[in-house]
């Protein structure tokens, strides 16, 4: 990718090990703004492997309107732990920051209830697509949902994702590294068992973030034995969020069933929110 320019002055996002820059890719039909994800070269090699794993998943993923699409990668200096993953640019950033900012600043156009319902549909659609590809996301949250300039959702960040082998519906995490414990299903936290159903649990927490305008789930809790024990007993849930009422909260509760086999599917979730959205826009 000789026609790729990385703007080090413009950081789109920064995590424990990764950094996302704004970039420009010049093509025959003109320049295109892109996002370039890389790792700081001083981090542990395990974090570089996470980025490599994300690249592998995205390479095999294909295209979907609600998934951040891979544009390409720069791997020419990979032996020195230098890797650029080039992705489509999402102008409005992550949903968590967007709804929090919108809630706290009158100058920003307010987020409507219909917006939240639309984003719920689009997230479920993207996650349904991942399930069809037998890919477990493993880190679904509002911070990993990006918004395009037209306010459409793109599921992103596949660093913890895994593709299941043909005859398996479960992935057991064996590698070390930070875990998004507030979004993880009980079986994922206690036994590191991940499945599409554990993604559904995380979807429920993500819904709670959206409908509470970016509040942090379980903000009063620290990770420890008491939290895990309460979660495994099936009696620890975030309280009913700011908007959406009991109907939306009941959908969340269906995502948080202790028995993963009783949780809703992403196809069912997409259908439920589509009906809610259609009812809302008719009013």
Automatic annotation (TrEMBL):
**Can you tell me where the transmembrane regions are?**
none
InterPro entries from the UniProt entry: Kinase-like_dom_sf, Prot_kinase_dom, Protein_kinase_ATP_BS, RTK, Ser-Thr/Tyr_kinase_cat_dom, Tyr_kinase_AS
Q: Which GO terms describe its cellular component?
A: endomembrane system; plasma membrane; receptor complex
Q: Which of UniProt's keywords are assigned here?
A: ATP-binding, Kinase, Magnesium, Membrane, Metal-binding, Nucleotide-binding, Transferase, Tyrosine-protein kinase
- Principal location class: membrane
Where does the UniProt annotation locate this protein? Endomembrane system; Membrane
Tell me the Gene Ontology biological-process terms attached to this UniProt entry. cell development; cell surface receptor protein tyrosine kinase signaling pathway; neuron differentiation; positive regulation of cellular component organization; regulation of developmental process
Which Gene3D superfamilies does this entry report, sorted A to Z? Phosphorylase Kinase, domain 1, Transferase(Phosphotransferase) domain 1
**Catalytic residues in the record:** 139
Q: Does the keyword ATP-binding apply?
A: yes
Q: How does it sit in the membrane?
A: Single-pass membrane protein
Domain of life, per UniProt, equals: Eukaryota
Recorded catalytic activity of this chain's protein: L-tyrosyl-[protein] + ATP = O-phospho-L-tyrosyl-[protein] + ADP + H(+)
Residue ranges of every copy of the Protein kinase domain listed in the record: 6-274
One GO molecular function term?
Answer: metal ion binding
Q: Which residues bind ATP?
A: 37, 143
Which residues does the annotation say bind Mg(2+)?
Answer: 144, 157
Its recorded name reads Focal adhesion kinase 1
Q: Which organism is it from?
A: Folsomia candida
